[in-house]
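May I ask for a single protein's sequence together with how it folds?
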Amino acid sequence: MSLTRLQKVMAQAGIASRRKCEELILAGRVTVNGKITTTLGTKVDPDKDEIRVDGKVIRKEPHIYLVLYKPPGYVTTVHDPQNRPTVMTLVRDYNQRIYPVGRLDYDTEGLLLMTNDGDFAYRLTHPKHHVPKTYLATVSGIPNKKALTSLRQGVKLEDGLTSPAKVQLVKKGTDSVLLKITLYEGRNRQVRRMCGAVGHPVLHLKRTSIGNLSLEGLKPGQYRTLTTEEVVELKNLVGLK
């Protein structure tokens, strides 16, 4: 008999990310063999135990992996209480429940992964795996050597010192520059906060890659399915088979 943590089984069935599944368990919305369970450490046998979420039996779905070119003006949530357009309106071709992996700001454009593989999503967004994410940031003013060194070595933010990053000056204008920034952690609005902290607010931001994935061949609002090789490479990056 193979026992697995309940939230992992739920995530693998495409219910939601592992964090969201934990919230569902704690809220008393999950039953195992007819009994409500609110214990996160609960282990189940996915082949024998009946697991329900809000009364509906969960069944493992085929995993879907998409890369979307998110345009500005969309939020990366499944639902938005302010009724702003969400990225879900851009991927209507799937009956299975899929959701964004991580977030991009409303005004930020670029590469966004979407999936129904909760374990994959959880690992990709966990800071311990150091998955590289690259951005092109147009910032106000001309950063000096000290500002660029701070961005590379670590900037002190309200939630602590940032990890070392790769920063390259791509193009210099009269009152702004284009920076290529690669991060290995995933804090909220990190590029904007880092650049603002060294005195050069972001004017425009675009994420161009995550790990081995790029936006090649995609226009804003378009998406494609990842190849088997791309999925394998990303899974290897986060320690999944």
About this structure: The chain has three domains: 4-57, 65-127+212-237, 132-210. The chain has a mean pLDDT of 92. The helical segments are 6-12, 18-26, 118-125, 145-153, 190-197, 228-237.
